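Bug #77: duplicate submission created two jobs. Keeping one. Sequence:
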Amino acid sequence: MREIAQIYHNNFGISFYWKNGKQVISEKVQLVFKETGFYFTVEELNQFCDLIEDSMTENACCEACELKYSCHKFLLKTPCSQIDLAVSMTELKSIKDLVEGSLFKIELEEYVYGVGLN
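Kept job's structure:
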């Protein structure tokens, strides 16, 4: 099994970079959740974040519902134009946390070891 460098995880999934020996391959991020894996560039991960936000806005009708996010699934667009995911609002919130947490950690690392380095 190949080694990984974990970026972020929650109860729903994980994001990480693949390693080749001791070298971290940071051009793309592996995002795994709900038996699904995506291998995104940071730009694609940002696009996915925007699509998640659009989906949350579009499907905000659950707020007043008695079933509170547990009844139906809807399609979540991805940066891969051929792929949409069927998710519930609860799953969408978990995916949102995973993607935003990953982007935060990536940007923090870039700052600390890039611009912020004295």
